[in-house]
Every structure is written in structure tokens, then in C-alpha cells.
Write a structure and sequence with these properties.
single chain; 4 helices
Length: about 110
């Protein structure tokens, strides 16, 4: 395991993830057409709710990915937002958009 993160690889992974999420959101938006005359409006409502929930989750994840990419540009990628310590490379490898070091993340989940 390396002592320093492979920043070019991590940025590339984040950019690829950003593009993949954008495509998914676009696909959901483009394909989310419902026949308003459909007899079972409860099914249409349920399907619309599921798609909206998925779009919301994807949009939230997209914001996290874009924020991580912006941190590369600002020179703050890999720095914990809570304690300002460097996030371990293993954590960044596992979760490239991590905002917190493992200690701060554990402390946050306990509260």
C-alpha cells in the first residue's frame, strides 16, 4: 500500500463517475414518460416516485463527486473537512469522494 494517494488515478476515477452519473440522470429524465391515460394511476404514481427518488440520490452523489473534483482544483483534495489532517490513501482508494478522515467519520456516525 502506498503512503501517498495516486492523485491522477483518483481524479480520473471521479471524472469517470461524474460522467456515468450524468448519463444515468439524463437517461432517467429522457425515459421518464408516463401515459397519463393509463388505467392504473397508482402504478404510474409509484413508478414516478421511484424515479424521482433515484434521481435525487444520483443528484446528491453527483454533487459529492463534483465537490471532490473541485477540491483537486483548489488543492484541498484528501484533506479532512473536520480536523484538516490528511485522509489516508487507503480511505481515498476505497471512497475517492471522502470528506472526512476515518477518525472524524467514525466520530460523526456516533453522534
Amino acid at each position: 500500500m502506498a503512503d501517498t494517494p495516486d492523485l491522477p488515478r483518483l481524479r480520473s476515477e471521479l471524472e469517470a463517475e461524474r460522467d456515468r452519473i450524468r448519463e444515468q440522470i439524463h437517461g432517467l429524465t429522457e425515459n421518464a414518460t408516463f401515459d397519463e391515460g393509463f388505467a392504473d394511476t397508482s402504478q404510474v404514481t409509484a413508478e414516478r416516485s421511484e424515479i424521482e427518488a433515484l434521481q435525487g440520490t444520483l443528484s446528491d452523489t453527483l454533487l459529492e463527486v463534483e465537490d471532490a473534483i473541485a477540491k483537486f482544483d483548489a488543492g484541498t483534495y484528501g484533506v479532512c473537512e473536520s480536523c484538516s489532517q490528511l485522509i489516508l490513501p487507503a480511505r481515498l482508494d476505497a471512497m475517492p469522494m471522502a470528506r472526512l478522515c476515518i477518525d472524524c467519520a467514525n466520530a460523526a456516525t456516533k453522534h
